[in-house]
Amino acid sequence: MLITLYSTEGCHLCEQAYSLLVEAGVQEHVQVIDIAFDDVLFSRYGVTIPVVSTQPVTSTSSEACSVTACSVTADTVSDESTHSISELGWPFDSADLAAWLKNNGFN
């Protein structure tokens, strides 16, 4: 399962959230999506990032994303009506993240 971190460049809270994901040992499951490149994502997450999600995201690119660079357009985000979405919005700490990860099948 893929964990999506909705983020944008220069977001210090997003960097903190990514650090918590690294501390939790799930960084190999994390795809960082920069919301700045997509109007729909920016409208949805613009004032709430960082947000972590288990929503399946299908990217047309095989290129790995980093904390500062990744763009995925709205048409690559799976249809919300057909998939269960679990999101954790900021603020969260390591305990909140650990509980969320456990509830979503990450040990």
From TrEMBL:
InterPro entries named among the record's database cross-references: Glutaredoxin-like, Thioredoxin-like_sf
Top-level taxonomic group: Bacteria
A Pfam family hit: Glrx-like
Annotated Gene3D superfamilies: Glutaredoxin
Protein name: Glutaredoxin family protein
The species this protein was found in: Photobacterium profundum (strain SS9)
Upper taxonomic lineage: Bacteria, Pseudomonadati, Pseudomonadota, Gammaproteobacteria, Vibrionales
